[in-house]
Each structure stands twice: as structure tokens, then as C-alpha cells.
Amino acid sequence: MTPEAPGAPGAPEIPPGPSPATAATTNPATTTPASTAPVGTAPASTAPAGTAPAPGPPDASPAPGRIVLLSASHRVAPGLLSWPAWRTLREADRVLCADEQHPQLPYLAEAGISVGHQVPSAEELVSFCAGGRTVVVLPSGEGDARLTDGLARLAGSNRVAMPDLELLPASYDLPGARLLDLVDVMDRIRRECPWSSRQTHEGLAKYGIEEAYELVEAIEAGDRTELREELGDVLLQVVFHARIAQDATGDEGEDGEAGEGPFSIDDVAATLIDKLIHRHPHVFGDETAQTPADVKAHWLRTKAVEKQRDSVTEGVPLAQPALALAAKLSSRVRTADLDVPLPAGDGGVGYQLLALAARAEATGTDPETALRAASRAYRDAIVAAERARAE
Q1: Arithmetic mean of pLDDT, 277-284
Q2: HSE of 118 in the Cβ direction (CA atoms, 13 Å)?
Q3: What would the pLDDT profile of 222-238 be if each residue is shown by its tens digit?
Q4: How far apart are CA 222 and CA 115, in angstroms?
Q5: pLDDT digits (tens, 9 = 90+) for 320-340
């Protein structure tokens, strides 16, 4: 079943329910016919003389009613509520929201749902619900601690017949929703922080290198808590640089491209999405890939078409660690099926390391990772020797 959208024709208008003071006289389940006997006298019995009165029905306790706290994610467009939420809102005896600027209010108004802006105390709300009434409360962004704390206190007292309390999610966060919060936080920091507001791409470049190395270290250490934190630090670099780029003021280049003009995190994400889709034709297109080698072939082929490079060395960052640089160049040569002998040089250690890096890459070993692992083992041996000497 598809829920009626806000503003749909025929949406029932829900008037405010009766006040607690008049509930006892308007609810048929809880009213008793008025006696015609004079005030101060007992009603006349209709039982024959000398017989006991017939037992009457047991006293019926009024239904406790229901209080529904309706939560909605601010990361989802207002008005996109679940069907149970819309149904509960339409059937409620009263809908309350203390925040007159709540983003859902215009959509409730379009649906003909009346909303009161004075949220009563917990005692008043419980009293109103007596008799089976339902009240829906839309919490404000900060939450309504006074009301929720009051309800908890009443429920814990065991002196009040509590209505049913229900938390009804009206909308849920989608995967990646917290990234929207990250963008908002970064935007505010960029505007209000004296340090962050003055940063440039060039000034932050060193932090990108540091955070990348710290991420690698967390991966090699196998520390998942550290891994999660370092992934966040790397993500911060991406969001920070994108926010700086948003402030750029420049003209378009001669080819009509953005040039030095601004771009946002959405532009960064859109470029990445297009690249991923284009380089995975076996996922998003008609091509097939049965092995990781097939996937790599697709990737290299589409990348070559995109870049149209004049040399296989283009795109290889020369600022990366020397051992990784040697392995990368060796990989490009081998992939392009070029016959380029290694330079002999003067036979110094640099050329020896180059030869070792090329040999390791050819056998499927990343020399940078291998040397780092060996260095970590050496570091542990050094620490052990220091401890032994100190004992």
C-alpha cells in the first residue's frame, strides 16, 4: 500500500480532542447515566422486598490511552514519512509540537492535520489520554526533556495508570547519512574557526601525507579502533579541501572548464561516482569479468581512454617514497610491455635498491610494504635489546 502524500485530496482533518476536564462527560465508555433521585438520597431499589439487590457489573477502569513520540530524521526531506507515521497522525486525538518552526509542520498542515504548539506537562498528558485517547508528540530538535523526564518519573512512581508509551520512527537515516552532518560541521568550522578559516590547499598538503601514513600504520597493526579513527582523519582531509575549494573565486579556463572556479564536496562525489561507474563496465555495463585480472584489465583500458597520456609515467607522483616510486615505474613498464633495461649507473646503493624494487614488483611483492614490515621487526628487536640491557 502506498501512503497518501501530504496534501493529498480528501486528507481528513483531525480537530483537537476534548480537554481532560470534559472527557468524563463525553466518552460513552466512562460516563454513567445521571440519577433522578433527589440530592442526598440513595437511589430507590427496584428489587422485591426482602431480597438482596442483584449484583451490578464490576467497575470498568478507563482505557489508559497512548502517547506516541514521533521521531523523524533531519537528514531526510521533511514530509517523507512512513505510512505507519501518517496513519498514526491521522488517527490521533491530538497532535502536539512545542517547536513552531519544526520542518514537518507545513506538510502536516497540507495533510489537514491540526497541531497544537503547547505541549502540556506529563501529568496533563496522562490525564488527557485516560479513556483511550491517543496523543502524538513531535519532539523538537533538542528533544523535550521536561516531558520525557516527567513521563519517566510518573511511570516509576507506580501511582498512576500510565498510557502506553511508544516511540515511532517516522523516517530513518539512509546509509551515509552522517556524512551530511560532517559536511554541516565542516562548513561551520570553516566559517567560524580562526585557524580553519585561513587554511589553504597548500598549507594542508603535509597533513594529507601524515594522515595517509597513519592510516597505513593502523592497517598494518591490525588495530580496528585505530583504523576507524584514522579513516576519519583521512576523510577529514577530503571534506576540508572540498570546503576550501568551495570558497575559490576564479574565472573559467580557456577550454571552458571550471579552471580556478569553486567546487563543492558534491562535485567531488559526482566526479568519483562517474569514474567508478565508467571503470566498472562489468558491474554497470554489458562487459563481464570473472577474475581480478579481468577487472584490472577493464580498469586500465578505460583509464587509458580517459587520460589519453603521452607516456606511461604520467600520473606517477614523484613525491611518493623512493622505493614505492621505483616499484610503480617498474609496474608501468611491465604493464605497457616495454623493454626498458634498468640503468646501471655507478653501481651505487640507489641502483641496487632500484633493481631490488623492480624484482620484487615483478614477483607480486610490494617492496615498500615488505621493507616496512622488516623495519617494524627491526624496531621490535631494538626495543627488546634495550629492555634486556636495562634489566
Answers
A1: 90
A2: 3
A3: 999 999 999 999 999 99
A4: 53
A5: 889 899 999 998 898 888 889
